[in-house]
């Protein structure tokens, strides 16, 4: 297992060109000392140059399962790249920082990565508010930055779309943005209508930056498909009692509630809902993406669904999905959760391989002198990732530098939805229930409906 301790700089580093704390103890010598402290001195190698060591800064709330899954996935990608001649012939050093969920924590980390660690690439960020809080710093430094966790469409629309030259070094390779997700969720609701005859939907997005496109667009998308929005409210992320919301949803006669929770909820909604209310629980719930969520809720998550990049790691979405999942499980399944990569892990893993392919196309990793060449390559490369087929929208598109959605033959957005279902052995497991081409089981309506 890769080192999860902190080195002398207060961050985790892996790669041939670095020595973590455990390795340092075992190889205490002059060479080890030099390597362990090189990144602390600032400007030793000079980020953005083809100097023999390619430094990746990883940003995630690694105190959470989602962030740990992303960090571990980055480690797997780095190891794979190292086995294949590194990043364009350079050894790779992964510098990981726990950003928590605040801009005040993350911004100094980014400044240190840029000014002292001299990173060549930054990947990650989970919270849209955090991503938006650091994007100017990253843009002004010209360091390529790939978003792999936050989904708010305005993150790139208000920056890359408005001032391309300043923000052209910022990209997202997954997940698809919230506007595209809103369309996909409407397609999914149409699928539920065809499957179960459900016509009446409640809309319950938490008040956060990433949910604004759902709040603005989803009701209209549902009505365009002949479905009814019978309830529409946005609880605070601090809400702890959902009974009043659920009572009103029941009174409205909803067949299903489509909720969007990332930082809010904390499973309390499930405790209030499971077995007590005659409607299904659909949409997005980040906590529910954890493979340990069944045990954490004592099965209270049964029949709830959530979308997630990578489909929970239970279906071969591409020919690379299960190979990645198997590597992750071999390394981490018996350790601290999560036992599977979770959605941000899939996206981070894919981002590093995508960037490797782009720099090969560009013929350089030197963003300081060749940023435009790297940008052009990022926009031209197509890559089969573990989560999806990945390519980016171009400069003059509606979503410049953002990941393109994939569509099926009916021109519906392919957007994996998983459902917690009993496994027949007294526990539960994720099953992919949508889209049908990737499904591992049928969608099941709650038994108490």
In short:
37% of the residues lie in helices and 16% in strands. Mean pLDDT is 89; it is low at 1-10 and 15-45. The N and C termini lie far apart (45 Å).
SSE layout and pairing:
Blueprint: E1 12-14, H1 21-26, H2 30-38, E2 53-60, H3 65-83, E3 91-98, H4 103-115, E4 121-124, H5 128-141, E5 145-147, H6 154-157, H7 164-167, E6 170-172, H8 178-196, E7 200-205, H9 212-224, E8 228-232, H10 243-251, E9 256-261, H11 268-273, E10 280-285, H12 293-296, E11 305-307, H13 321-332, H14 342-362, H15 367-380, E12 383-384, E13 389-390, E14 417-422, E15 428-434
Parallel strand pairs: 2-3, 2-4, 4-5, 5-6, 7-8, 7-9, 9-10
Antiparallel strand pairs: 1-3, 11-14, 12-13, 14-15
Helix pairs in contact: 3-14, 4-5, 8-9, 14-15
Textual characterization of the structure:
Helices cover 37% and strands 16% of the residues. With 449 residues, the chain is of the alpha/beta class. It has 3 domains: 41 residues, no CATH class; 201 residues, 3-Layer(aba) Sandwich (Rossmann fold); 158 residues, 3-Layer(aba) Sandwich (Rossmann fold). It has a 6-stranded mixed sheet with strand order 1-3-2-4-5-6, sandwiched between helices. It is globular and about 65 Å long. The N terminus is likely disordered.
């Amino acid at each position: 297992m890769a080192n999860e301790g902190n080195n002398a700089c207060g961050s985790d580093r892996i790669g041939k060109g670095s020595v973590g704390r455990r390795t340092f103890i075992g190889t205490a010598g002059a060479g080890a000392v030099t390597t362990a402290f090189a990144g602390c001195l600032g400007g030793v190698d000079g980020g953005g140059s083809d100097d023999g060591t390619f430094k990746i800064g990883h940003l995630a709330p690694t105190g959470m399962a989602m962030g740990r899954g992303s960090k571990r996935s980055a480690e797997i990608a780095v190891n794979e790249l190292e086995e294949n001649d590194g990043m364009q012939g350079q050894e790779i050093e992964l510098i990981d920082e726990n950003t928590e969920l605040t801009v005040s924590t993350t911004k100094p980390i980014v400044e240190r990565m840029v000014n002292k660690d001299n990173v060549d690439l930054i990947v990650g960020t989970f919270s849209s508010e955090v991503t938006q809080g650091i994007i100017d710093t990253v843009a002004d430094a010209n360091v390529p930055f790939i978003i792999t966790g936050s989904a708010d469409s305005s993150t790139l629309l208000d920056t890359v779309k408005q001032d391309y030259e300043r923000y052209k070094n910022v990209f997202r390779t997954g997940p698809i943005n919230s506007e595209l997700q809103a369309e996909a969720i409407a397609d999914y609701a149409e699928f539920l209508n065809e499957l179960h005859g459900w016509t009446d939907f409640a809309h319950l997005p938490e008040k956060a930056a990433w949910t604004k496109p759902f709040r603005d667009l989803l009701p209209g998308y549902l009505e365009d498909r002949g479905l009814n929005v019978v309830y529409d409210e946005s609880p605070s992320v601090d809400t702890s009692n959902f009974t009043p919301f659920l009572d009103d949803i029941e009174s409205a006669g909803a067949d299903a509630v489509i909720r969007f929770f990332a930082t809010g909820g904390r499973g309390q909604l499930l405790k209030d809902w499971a077995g007590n209310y005659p409607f299904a629980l659909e949409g997005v719930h980040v906590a529910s993406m954890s493979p340990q969520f069944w045990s954490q809720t004592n099965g209270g998550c049964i029949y709830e669904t959530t979308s997630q990049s990578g489909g929970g790691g239970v279906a071969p979405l591409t020919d690379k999905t299960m190979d990645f999942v198997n590597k992750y499980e071999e390394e981490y399944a018996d350790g601290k959760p999560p036992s599977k990569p979770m959605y941000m892990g899939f996206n981070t893993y894919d981002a590093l391989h995508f960037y490797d392919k782009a720099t090969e196309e560009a013929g350089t990793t030197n963003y300081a002198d060749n940023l435009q060449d790297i940008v052009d390559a990022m926009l031209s490369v197509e890559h089969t990732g573990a989560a999806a087929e990945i390519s980016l929208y171009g400069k003059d598109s509606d979503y410049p530098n953002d990941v393109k959605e994939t569509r099926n033959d009916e021109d519906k957005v392919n957007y994996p939805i998983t459902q917690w279902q009993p496994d027949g052995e007294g526990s539960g497991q994720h099953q992919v229930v949508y889209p049908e081409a990737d499904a591992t089981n049928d969608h099941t309506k709650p038994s108490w409906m």
